[in-house]
Amino acid sequence: MKTRAAVLHGPTKTFSVEELELDEPKAGEVLVKMVATGICHSDWHFATGDHPARYPIVPGHEGAGIVEKVGPGVTEVQPGDHVLLTFIPPCGKCRWCLTGLPVLCDRGAGATIGAQLDGTFRLRTKDGQEVGQFAMIGCFSEYTVAPADAIVKIDPDIPLDRACLVSCCVPTGVGAAAKRGEVRAGEVVAVFGLGGVGMNAVQGAALAGASKVIAVDIVPWKLEAAQE
């Protein structure tokens, strides 16, 4: 099938919107119609070359959409389900997964190559060049094929344009406060920088019971948003 996607052909700071060929989902994979995706600074790192990657590649790892089709063996979701796409599909078998740290799963090492778990690609240009999908999901596309392990079913009543942020900046920020920072009730917390992650760190500290959260930034509207 065909899909339009924002493609990076190198660290040029320029995305090219192109029509690509997208393969059908193989065993253990899911075809998703993307509805919303966030733009994370990690995606921009590929555009600037600050983070090495295999090009061409379709970035995007904060995605939400609706299942169109499932490959053989997939039972967790079915067509019509509303889903999030996560950027490191945990294997559940490596040392990190087995010790409760799936975010460090060994599969993450191949995130910037853009191939699927079997080492092959699902996207191609019109002339047959293979195109990678960042983190095996490549959300800057109308449609994407991803591992079932990267798909999380959600309540259909949740707006997808908000739900997509739960794929990255929400758990990163909340986790920074609640897990890494181990904020406890009554503590005073300072958060420096109010981007997507920082704003959610503010919320994470508040949810953890901090008596005061000090938000630090040089952008006035971000400070106003943090107070909300």
From TrEMBL:
Keyword check for Zinc: yes
One Gene Ontology term, aspect cellular component: cytosol
Annotated keywords: Metal-binding, NAD, Oxidoreductase, Zinc
One annotated GO molecular function: zinc ion binding
Residue ranges constituting the Alcohol dehydrogenase-like N-terminal domain according to the UniProt record: 27-155
Stated name of the protein: Alcohol dehydrogenase
Segments forming a coiled coil: none
Pfam family, one: ADH_N
One GO BP: formaldehyde catabolic process
TM annotation in the entry: none
Keyword Cytoplasm set for record: no
